[in-house]
Every structure is written in C-alpha cells, then in structure tokens.
Amino acid sequence: MAKFYDNGNPVDLGENGSNPTQNEPIIFLNNPTATWQNNLGSGGNFTENGALTDGTDITIPGIPNNLTLISHSQTAKTSPEDANILLLAEGDIDLNSGDLKTSVSKDGGTIFTEVTALEEVGDFEKGQLYTGTVSLPAGTSTNMRWKVETDNNKDLNLHGVGLEWR
Fold first, then answer.
1. Each residue of 43-75: pLDDT tens digit?
2. Which of 60, 79, 97, 135 is most buried per CB count within 10 Å?
3. CATH number of the domain to which 99 belongs
4. Same domain, yes or no, for 93 and 17?
C-alpha cells in the first residue's frame, strides 16, 4: 500500500499509473464490471481507460493448455529446512496421474524441490483444498518461491496458493 498512499494521502500515479514506480501497472478486476465505479477522473474511485471485461466471464474455448506458474520471491528470515504449500483449486484433478504438481525453491528458483506427497485435505466453496510438505536441501539461501504445474491438459482454476516455511 505504500505505493498508493503517503502519510495517509493518495499518491499521484500519473497519467498512465507509472508513478512512483516508473512501471505502468496491469490491473486485473475479478468481479462483474457493474460493481466497479467509474468516476471519469474526478478522484476517489476507478477511472476506466478502454473497455472492461467481467473477470468472472473470461473463458477460452477448446482444450486447456498445461500451466506453469511461479511466484515472486519472498525472503525468509533464516534458511528454512522444510516448507508447507497450500492450494485452493477447482477442477477435475487426479493427483495419482500427475495432473497437478507443486514444488518449492529456497534459492530464488534455481533449484525447485517437488512436493511428492501433495494430498487433497478438504473442500471449499468452489473446489478442493490441497496441501503438502517438502524437505528443502541444505544451504543458507532464503529466497523462497513456489511453482505450480499442470499436466494432461486439465481444466483448472487456481484460486490461491500459500507457502509456509520453517
């Protein structure tokens, strides 16, 4: 939030949103567009520049492609020995046939260690809850990342991923 507020006041993000980071942001809205207000530049709400598409209505017809999704790095205070991963996923997933694989890296993504005992542990409103634990290689690295991969062209909606280490 520090990029958007300074001493409790909003930061001027510039004409294209690139201030103060100098990178033009990509913003994803995942609700029906009727729930987003358009203030046409008067401040305090959302200003549309182009067409909006309802996030819940985006579909790609045909056979789903396989996916590899890698997180941004998070810094651990000390080099972890183990990690737990948690996924909220929706789809027809068979863990025994390798439809879904997860792995964790503590060196920024140079070496990923696969979570071999990923298991379904429950349900949530839109799908299943999966979790697994992995022992990480020895070393002093603290640059944590997770990776999620799908195989067998399964249709999967990934609602969230969590990573915990110790």
1. 555 555 566 555 554 445 566 778 899 999 999
2. 79
3. 2.60.120.260
4. no
Q: How many domains does the chain have?
A: 2
Rounded Cα distance, 110 and 124, in Å: 33
Answer for the pair 159, 88: CB distance below 8 angstroms, yes or no. Answer: yes
Q: Quick one: 109 and 144 in the same domain?
A: yes
Q: Tell me, what's the pLDDT at 47?
A: 55
- The predicted model gives 110-136 an average pLDDT of 93
Q: How many CB atoms lie within 10 A of CB 35?
A: 8
User: What span, in angstroms and rounded, lies between the C-alpha atoms of 137 and 41?
Assistant: 52
Looking at the structure, tell me whether residues 53 and 90 fall in a common domain: no
Rounded CA gap, 38 and 134, in Å? 46
- Comparing CA positions, the residue from 108, 120, 117 lying closest to residue 147 is 108
- Is 123 or 14 the better-scoring residue by pLDDT? 123
Q: Which domain holds residue 93?
A: 68-165
Same domain, 136 and 157: yes
